[in-house]
Design brief:
There is one protein chain. This protein is of the alpha+beta class. The protein has 2 domains: 25-107, Roll (Ubiquitin-like (UB roll)); 119-375, Glutamine synthetase/guanido kinase, catalytic domain (Creatine Kinase, Chain A, domain 2), CATH 3.30.590. It is 27% helix and 23% strand. It contains 10 helices and 13 strands. α2 runs parallel beside α9, α3 crosses α4 (211-230) and α6 crosses α9 (346-358). The structure holds adenosine-5'-diphosphate and manganese (II) ion (3 copies). One manganese (II) ion binds next to β8.
Length: 376
């Protein structure tokens, strides 16, 4: 078992806490965090600031060496959101950044740039998003954490929201990540053990507009960083284990002032028809590879809908869009888009939902991009 944990996780953590408790004068460590060139993960590096920043304007731009067709290129880091650093503690900061190319245009994986413009256009609707991030813990050997090295654990059934050493694998990580999120200033609203053993979920939200993407990306950073301390890996692969084992999604819950008001269900039903008309477009942005990763997950089995068919229903898990039971009863609230994969870019997902549901004129542009063959 130990050999599946990273070597650095076994370094002496008591020694570490001595050094972390040393005073740092008035200086502030700022760890810049950004989305990598493949759009499926994060990178970070740290610098010293002369004093604690009081707003994002106090944090200077920076840069790093990215790679473009085999040669390195300098990219600019533009700070966009500050969080408290739960690893090195106050006054140190985590700084989420947008990435620009050297021509000042957004990098290819910088979906925040357009998301911000869309959220600005639809801000009068007061759009809220709540995202459910599912993930699977793996050892550094890539094998699901604490699964038998040969064969499989007992079939799915007892693990979802389960407890006990034979049902909940790796809860330390979930609890430490939850605390780290609260300390950092993430609006984390819950966590639970998932259907597959070693699979877990946390939820962020509801957050308005661009903040949803900012918060989920930083919550992912904290997850990967907590896992690093424990010597394991958090995989956002939408279907880490083929066969009759649940995949991982990033269900995206969405509401506006109108859907939250009395009789809002009528608005939700109209939005569902708009989402139906743009199904393929939404599948294409549901993972970083045009829907190819999510194709392994959206089979119509294991609590998913079939990737080729749009469907919607109250309180069903086998649909593209679910109307939660309480929303159907109250006739107001939010809808749940169950299609996004665990490794989706939340900026791409939230901006697509906002465009389709709230920007009438843009729908035709979306449909003209439609290419259903890509999914076969
Ligand atoms: P599920 O039953 O699908 O597992 P969860 O309890 O895991 O649902 O997650 C519910 C999500 O819905 C949370 O992310 C929460 O922030 C979000 N949510 C709740 N109310 C709203 C709302 N009015 N608008 C948007 N999202 C919401
Ligand atoms: Mn959930
Ligand atoms: Mn779930
Ligand atoms: Mn859900």
């Amino acid at each position: 078992m130990l050999s599946t944990l990273s070597v650095s996780s076994q370094l002496n953590k008591v020694l570490r806490s001595h050094y972390l408790s040393l005073s740092q004068g008035g200086l502030c460590q700022a760890t810049y965090v950004w989305i990598n060139d493949s759009g499926d993960g994060l990178q970070s590096k740290t610098r010293t600031l002369e004093s604690e920043p009081s707003s994002i304007e106090d944090i200077p731009k920076w840069n790093f060496e990215g790679f473009s067709t085999n040669h390195s290129v300098t990219r600019t880091l533009v700070p966009v959101s500050i969080f408290k650093d739960p690893f090195t503690l106050d006054p140190n900061k985590l700084v989420l950044c947008e990435v620009l190319k050297n021509n000042r245009k957004p990098a290819d994986t910088n979906h925040r740039y357009v998301c911000k413009k869309i959220m600005e256009k639809v801000k009068d609707f007061r759009p809220w998003f709540g995202m459910e991030q599912e993930y699977t813990l793996l050892g550094i050997d890539g094998h699901p954490y604490s699964w038998p090295s040969n064969g499989f654990p007992k079939p799915q059934g007892p693990y979802y929201c389960g407890l006990g050493a034979d049902r909940a694998y790796g809860r330390d990580i979930v609890e430490c990540h939850y605390k780290a999120c609260i300390y950092a200033g993430i609006k984390i609203c819950g966590a639970n053990a998932e259907v597959m053993p070693s699979q877990w979920e946390f939820q962020v939200g509801p957050c308005e507009g661009i903040v949803a993407g900012d918060q989920l990306w930083m919550a992912r950073f904290l997850l990967h960083r907590v896992c690093e301390d424990f010597g394991v890996i958090a995989s956002l692969d939408p279907k880490p284990i083929p066969g009759n084992w649940n995949g991982s999604g990033c269900h995206t819950n969405f509401s506006t002032e109108a859907t939250r008001a009395k009789g809002g269900l009528d608005h939700i039903e109209k939005m569902i028809e708009k989402l139906r008309a743009c199904h393929v477009q939404h599948i294409r942005i549901s993972d970083p590879h045009g829907g190819q990763d999510n194709k392994r997950r959206l089979t119509g089995f294991n609590e998913t809908s079939n990737i080729h068919e749009f469907s919607a229903a109250v309180a069903s898990s086998r649909v593209s869009i679910r109307i939660p039971l309480n929303v159907s009863q109250d006739k107001r609230g939010y809808l749940e888009d169950r299609r996004p994969a665990a490794n989706c870019d939340p900026y791409a997902v939230t901006s697509a939902i906002a465009r389709t549901c709230l920007m009438e004129d843009e729908v035709e542009d979306l449909l003209s991009d439609l290419d259903i063959d890509d999914l076969d």
